[in-house]
Amino acid sequence: MQTSWIQFAPESASTVSGKVDALYFYLSGVTLFFTLLISGVIIFFVIKYRRRTPFEIPQPVAGSHRLEALWSVIPFLIAMSMFVWGAQIYFENSRPPKNANEIYVVGKQWMWKIQHSTGQREINELHVPAGRKIRLIMTSEDTIHDFFIPAFRIKADVLPGKYTTQWFEATKPGTYHLFCAEYCGMNHSGMIGSVVVMQPSDFDNWLSGNASQQSPAVAGQQLFQSLGCVSCHGANGEGGRGPTLAGLFGRKVFLTNGQTLVADEAYVRESIENPSAKVVNGFNPIMPTFQGQVTPEQLIQIMSFIKSLQVSGAQTPAATAPSPTVQAPGAKATPQPNRQ
Amino acid sequence: MKEFETFETPTAARVNYLNAEYGLKSWLLTKDHKRIALLYLGSISVFFFIGGLYALFIRLELLTPQGDLLSSTTYNKVFTQHGIIMIFFFLIPSIPATLGNFLVPMMIGAKDLAFPRINLLSWYIYLLGGIVTIWALLAGGVDTGWTFYAPYSTTFSNSYVVATGVGVFISGFSSILTGLNFIVTIHTMRAPGMTWFRLPLFIWSHYATSLIMILGTPVIAITILLLAFERISHVGIFDPANGGDPVLFQHLFWFYSHPAVYIMVLPAMGVTSELIANFSRKNVFGYKFVAFSSLAIAVFGFLVWGHHLFVASQSVYAGMIFSFLSFAVAIPSAIKVFNWTATLFKGSISYDTPMLYGLGFIGLFTVGGMTGLFLASLAVDVHVSDTYFVVAHFHYIMVGGTLLAYLGGLHYWWPKITGRMYPEGWGRFSALVVFVGFNLTFLPQFVAGYLGMPRRYHAYPPEFQVFNVLSTAGASVLGVGLIIPFVYLLWSMRYGKHAEANPWHLPGLEWRTSSPPPTENFFATPVVTWEAYEFAPPEEMQVIGKFREAGLEVTDAPIGGQP
Amino acid sequence: MSEHIVSLRVYVTIFLALMAGTALTVWAGLQDFPGQLNVIIAMTIAVVKATLVVLYFMHVRYSSRLIWVVFTSALFWLAILFTFTFSDYWTRGWFQI
Amino acid sequence: MAEGLAIEHEVSHPALQHHFENMEQQREAGALGMWVFLVTEIMFFGGMFLAYTLYRTQYPAAFASASNHLDLTLGAVNTVVLILSSFTMALAVYSAQLGRRRNQIICLLATITLGLTFLGIKAVEYHDKYEDSLIPGRLIPGRPFNPEVQEHGTPYDKHKLHLLPGATVKNVEMFYWIYFAMTGMHAIHMIIGVGLLSVILFFAWRGRYGPEYHNPVEISGLYWHFVDIIWIFLFPLLYLLGRHLEHL
Ligand code: HEA
Ligand code: HEA
Ligand code: CUA
Ligand SMILES: [Cu+2]
């Protein structure tokens, strides 16, 4: 990465970086304008109205409501233009595209562990194809980190105990910096790496060249077996004593307490670590907690397995829709010893 | 009137607050707000030098890309301690506890603050907090960053987090007590005739600052306490293992710490208003707008804290609300900047040292504030958050803004505080050095930040070295520029020219008593019959003899002394 | 001195009202009201009790407007703290409501 | 020296501090000062109320389970004790305003006694929690948080934690953390209040306060009532919410 010191922006290598730069240069322009305006006027006044005799007293100048209005409203309008522009780019980027490839990122002191959906693992390196949309699903094993790629103008904190995501579409092959941008302890400044953007064909070669590894979905399947999930959810997540898991992500889930939600990473994680917190309507809270038994990485693998499950034709809609026909022995009906 | 009425002590009985009593005990047990201000001035300067020493190490380490001077652990402690000391033990108390303490009663015509004992207590609390913190630093230091983010601080850090937290917690109470004292004083102790709109703007800005101190500081106190207990008990409410949310810590922390940045800048704005008006001998343009913008900043400043959480997994919608409000809160600042500029129009502007600092403040605050808008702009903040762009932004406001205003204020009121003049030539020279050094230090950091250099980095990719070399060079110039006033101010306390009661010939109440003032501030309770910044008409101003009649010592020197 | 002295009758009445409120809230806490009504009832009673203490025991009803402003400003700032923090959690999907 | 001069001091009360112009100003400043201080106290507790509200909304079942394990009777008795003490405090101010020294002393004594009663009962409750290993984390050496959980259907045992569906022990621990933080902080304020009132009692006994001057009594009263108000909120939040679920 060649740099000369007249450079004012890092390389622009993603679909959003141009947009951010445009806004940045607009902001810089406005800043320059106001700084020059104010310092220019000050210098002008300071010279023009410098004190000439020791005891001169200038006439007081009355305030002006019109001027006050002027220099409140104009900056406000300019500020709003900045707000709308910035919020618009941000809002667009906050909604990941549907067809993105997913890559899993786990931060830990002080390295980045990355796994592609095809199974390749990398440490402190991320290989991605140019021109394809990539969505990162990130979590941390210890403290807060932050996955920052300056050339893509993206960054997001990576937190323990939950999943954050960000997405990008690289445009230009090359090697770019990857930084940890949230202070995380001793070797924070060493938690760096590189992002290698390749032509799609090169990337596919790279993938097949490293294909020996197990994909997270396969690893997840093994965990699904070994942890005994199969006993309730079936070998392919088709359901049984527990609800069907095929096609779970993005599906509306109805809970016993009358609430509904859309299943996402956070919900599935909670379902595994604290199953009785949100119980699916029509089921008993019999699922044991797996908190402490699965690492964040294994959780990701299980999720990836659940995502890979195909919805087979004959689904039991009763499992997810509130149906009056199913006799739902919900939480409230469970007999509990009375205290009084 | 039309020539400044004074409430001086008759020349025969020139006892002032400095020579009223002697001995260590008379200082350590004093209830005089002026002496307490000096106690604060001394201790704050010590902390500033400690913080500056840390800055020196930061800059030396960053001279080269490799982390070769300090180990990474040490470096992390150094910037953390730099931040903690500079923020909690220097900048937050700086102007309010020294200049504010000294001047709030004098400017409103009171004999003292409403609760003199609490005022003294606040200094002892500050000192205790400082000592606990220094002890923690000596015992092994702390490496969490000044923001103490959980869960790093609660679980992963191996440093003296609890002790430092306790130090900061304690010092918070000194800030609360100062704010409380100011609010009650300004409400109940104004001299007859001193209506709200006759108050100097310095008072308005301190009133606004005090609001933030009493409404915000308790929240950081409880937050740090919960954090400390979480660390001790190994579980808690910020801990994801218990279902807690680390981001809650960030919300609570910034609920105080964003408004706290206005604690740091509002008093500086008050000083600037005084400097600009008095050194151009003009009433402040749009007095009421400047006064109310202070209150607006204090109130709206509480609505924007989420702009520190744009990339911290805060929700998109909350991000947009906080971004919008951050832009909105910039408007009162803009109003101030424009009104100061307009105040200069058709003034009689002198180039005395305080004025140079005041003008410097306007320029650098504008740059710092405008770059705050970059950060408030969501898409840009995603890129520059936690980079050197942020570092440059806040140093522009805190060093270029507040520190400069603090120095300006110190020079301006130095004759009143000590009864001596500082050497004007040296003053102007060092103001210039500080200005140049400062810009050289922090301007390159904007560029480095946008290029992607993350903050809190002990070692960095070599392509950023250019900027860091410039920055370190600038810091050396800045350091020299700061040491000069330190030396000559100390020198002038003993050898400086004696100051008159009103060396700048200004109408403010604090100038209508002797320099240094008597313990009771005024020989008699003043009755205020004039507006703020009401200068005498030129004819009368020119008759030096009138000053003599009024009991003032007037030299024939031009105003402001000579270089 | 322009100080209002609250009569003994008022103090006793308020005290009895506070006691009644305490009894009521305990009783209500043991009933099974639908939805979030239990919370709403408990908090309403607490707010009423606190208001009585503030107005009469703490004499705010008879104090200057400044004291009113000071006190309500505390509640206002508390509201800021709650509203804006929850504006994040709400839209982050913490509460499914 | 110009004309706008000395406003002479009135014939001043011995308690008038030198920097105030008159007693009225001094009284106003004192009351305003205490109110401003109470504002900071509200914000101080506000942080904890925020955490409570957040996590209660998020983990209602765990919070209900944990709350049900608290002793409702002791909590209710303490509420009565504290309200009573607020009442006697109000009467102490009243007596001072009327210059009835004896009544004032009796009321102050009653307030202090009730305050100490509250703290005693609180200590009993804390001890119960200690016995049941409910002190969160590893705060108490040798007694980490480790409650026995009651199985469904087994006979009720008041030393065991009875988890409602959806509750986890981890989240229950969170409740207890908040419980100890809030009640502990409240108790510290009570202790400070008792200390303050003891000083007031001493001076009342010396006969310092009367209709002319009773600022300190009034101000300490404000503080005491404030502590009462905090408890008025803590009681339902910590002891009552979710209590009805117990019967299900
Ligand atoms: C005294 C201190 C101070 C002050 C006054 C400010 C003022 C402002 N700050 Fe700053 N800020 C800090 C100290 C301060 N800040 C610190 C210490 C941090 C980092 C904390 C950390 O993480 O360690 C920080 C971080 C910070 C961030 C988070 C960055 C990040 O970590 O990602 C943001 C984001 O919005 C921000 C915004 C603002 C804004 C909008 C203002 C506004 O108030 C500025 C308003 C002023 C002006 C706008 C200039 C004057 C106006 C004109 C000249 C007219 C023209 C105006 C228009 C066209 C609108 N600041
Ligand atoms: C009031 C606030 C304040 C002030 C005045 C300063 C002053 C300075 N700061 Fe500071 N800074 C912060 C608040 C402040 N800073 C904060 C809050 C952080 C964030 C910390 C964190 O990330 O947690 C930070 C971080 C920070 C960093 C980033 C570190 C990193 O992220 O890795 C850097 C880097 O250049 C820096 C530099 C400087 C410099 C060069 C000065 C100069 O202006 C200092 C000039 C002063 C002097 C030079 C004093 C004179 C004394 C001497 C020269 C010593 C000689 C001593 C004797 C003779 C006894 N600061
Ligand atoms: Cu990981 Cu910083
Ligand atoms: Cu901020």
Bound molecules: heme-A, dinuclear copper ion, copper (II) ion
Largest sheet of chain D: none
Q: Please trace the helix and strand order of chain C, writing H or E for each element.
A: HHH
As an assembly, this protein is heterotetramer
Low-confidence stretches of chain D: 1-10
- Evaluate the radius of gyration of chain D: 23 Å
Q: Give the overall average pLDDT of chain C.
A: 88
Total strands of chain D: the figure is 0
Largest sheet of chain C: none
Beta-sheet strand percentage of chain D?
A: under 5%
What level of helicity do the residues of chain D show? 55-70%
Low-pLDDT sequence parts of chain C = none
Number of helices of chain C: 3
Inertia-based shape of chain D: elongated
**Content-based structural category of chain D:** mainly alpha
H-E order of chain D: HHHHHH
Number of helices of chain D: 6
User: Total strand count of chain C, please?
Assistant: 0
Helical proportion of chain C? over 70%
User: Which chains make the largest contact?
Assistant: A-B, 89 and 99 residues
How is the topology of this model organized?
The complex is a heterotetramer of chains A (340), B (563), C (97) and D (248).
Chain A: H1 17-48, H2 65-94, E1 101-108, E2 111-116, E3 121-123, E4 125-129, E5 133-140, E6 145-149, E7 154-158, E8 164-169, E9 174-180, E10 193-198, H3 200-209, H4 216-226, H5 230-233, E11 252-254, E12 260-262, H6 265-273, H7 296-308
Parallel strand pairs in A: 1-5, 4-10
Antiparallel strand pairs in A: 1-2, 2-3, 5-8, 6-7, 6-9, 9-10, 11-12
Helix pairs in contact in A: 1-2, 4-7
Chain B: H1 24-28, H2 33-61, H3 72-108, H4 116-139, H5 152-156, H6 161-188, H7 201-233, H8 246-279, H9 287-300, H10 316-344, H11 353-376, H12 378-384, H13 388-418, H14 424-451, H15 465-495, H16 538-542, H17 544-549
Helix pairs in contact in B: 2-3, 2-4, 2-15, 3-6, 3-7, 3-8, 3-13, 4-6, 6-7, 7-8, 7-9, 8-10, 8-11, 8-13, 9-10, 10-11, 11-13, 11-14, 13-14, 14-15
Chain D: H1 23-58, H2 60-69, H3 72-98, H4 101-131, H5 169-205, H6 215-240
Helix pairs in contact in D: 1-2, 1-5, 1-6, 2-5, 3-4, 3-6, 4-5, 5-6
Bound molecules: heme-A (2 copies), dinuclear copper ion (CUA) and copper (II) ion.
One heme-A sits between chains B (147, 261-262, 264-265, 307-308, 310, 326, 329-330, 333-334, 337, 366, 369-370, 372-373, 375-376, 381, 385-386, 390, 393-394, 397-398, 402) and A (30, 34, 38, 75, 78-79).
What does this protein look like?
The complex is a heterotetramer of chains A (340), B (563), C (97) and D (248). By secondary structure, chain A is an alpha+beta fold. Chain A is 32% helix and 19% strand. Chain A has a 5-stranded mixed β-sheet with strand order 3-2-1-5-8, covered by helices on one side. Chain A has a 5-stranded mixed β-sheet with strand order 4-10-9-6-7, with helices on one face. In chain A, strands 11-12 form a two-stranded antiparallel ribbon. In chain A, strand 6 (145-149) and strand 7 form a beta hairpin. Chain A is elongated and about 95 Å long. Chain B has helices at 24-28, 33-61, 72-108, 116-139, 152-156, 161-188, 201-233, 246-279, 287-300, 316-344, 353-376, 378-384, 388-418, 424-451, 465-495, 538-542, 544-549. In chain B, helix 10 runs antiparallel to helix 11. Chain C is mainly α and 97 residues long. In chain C, 73% of the residues lie in helices and 0% in strands. Chain C has 3 helices and no strands. In chain C, helix 1 runs antiparallel to helix 2. The radius of gyration of chain C is 18 Å and the shape is flat. Chain D is mostly helical. Chain D is built from 6 helices and no strands. In chain D, helix 1 runs antiparallel to helix 5 and helix 3 (72-98) packs antiparallel against helix 4. Classes of the chains: A alpha+beta (340), B mainly alpha (563), C mainly alpha (97), D mainly alpha (248). The interface between A and D is medium-sized, with 17 and 20 residues. Bound molecules: heme-A (2 copies), dinuclear copper ion and copper (II) ion. Dinuclear copper ion binds at residues 107, 110, 145, 180, 182-184, 188, 191 of chain A.
